[in-house]
């Protein structure tokens, strides 16, 4: 709905439309002065300008009123109600404002709510009835003239309301399009945020495991500088291999981030044994048992791998050297149970600044699969990390 409340500035189209409406109202007023007398002498069928049986001042007042009515159309967008009501009142005493009145009624229906337009239309019907008493049409019966005037005003109001509703529909569709575009952009940003969170979890899981191996062996070399040469060489080899593998993992992550489409390389259940062997080589003393039949779904297998990886990483951080048991058991229809349990650390380990984001990430992974994750201390002073993951039959 177009409602002008502040200073209104016309563009080129508005100037053309307003000038056209002004000239159209003037032409309508001039044609109202023409009269078509009955056929016959002295004029036949040629229209002439008749001189009504009114005083000269009345004729001048009518023409000034018609000029003022046509001029008022220039402000019909700003004050459509006031101008329409004023022209309705003038139409009772003069026919010269009829053209300006119809244009004002159309503009009113276009720029104001339908309720306001219908109220003003009611005033127009009343003015037509009053006019039939004040200025009866000499060529038409009163009832026919009344119905014709009401029909013309009703048609103009209806046309204006139709254009009004069509503009509202277009504006509504435009707003919906803008809203849909904004919503699509928000969904894309949300999806991008989720992808970034997934990338962060993958980087934490992949590099955290490798770097924890480096930390364990580097710490052993620091605290045992007098270790046998074979043990030092073995630790240096593990450090070199772990650093090399960490760089390879980092290259893969960066490659995926640079690629337009892609995913991080994902582990499977087949990689679990290699993961446990790496931890065992680092001195974690891990016992691994597998007891499941069938092929584990890829997504469930990846989540199981990440659970074991996080559990072994936490053992190296908080209980290095502790006896650790990793068990994976289950069957289709029963689910897959993954457990990492470690005993008490051989020596007290100072608590670092771990923020527990690994367990938070695991909780998110398991919840996405509608599984369950439990973790906490055991009576013997160790730690237990256990998860149940659904495995459809």
From TrEMBL:
It is an enzyme of class 2 (transferase). It catalyses: ATP + protein L-histidine = ADP + protein N-phospho-L-histidine. It comes from the Bacteria. The keyword Protease does not apply. SUPFAM superfamilies: ATPase domain of HSP90 chaperone/DNA topoisomerase II/histidine kinase. Keywords: ATP-binding, Kinase, Membrane, Nucleotide-binding, Phosphoprotein, Transferase, Transmembrane, Transmembrane helix, Two-component regulatory system. InterPro entries: HATPase_C_sf, Sensor_HK_TwoCompSys, Sig_transdc_His_kin_sub3_dim/P. One of its GO terms (molecular function) is kinase activity. Residues 196-260 form the Signal transduction histidine kinase subgroup 3 dimerisation and phosphoacceptor domain. Its EC number is 2.7.13.3. The chain crosses the membrane at residues 15-34, 83-109, 116-134, 140-161. This is histidine kinase. It comes from Nocardiopsis changdeensis.
